Amino acid sequence: MNRTKVVAFADDLIMATRSESLRAVENCVNVELSKINGWSKNNKSKFNNKKSKVMLVSRRNRKKTRT
Length: 67
What we know:
single chain; 67 residues; alpha+beta; two-stranded antiparallel sheet; 1 helix; 31% helix
């Protein structure tokens, strides 16, 4: 199950996506970014990719690497 929430305020946009797997999150984010891109073209607005940030938050423990 995918869940996405988009919040916009002035010239800021936050998109939070939740799903069972990283691949599902990636696919969902790509779909939402396509929608946002379409909206921006229709409204003659541009998003600055250089100001864009991505943060992955997970509850899963990463496997420790051997040293």
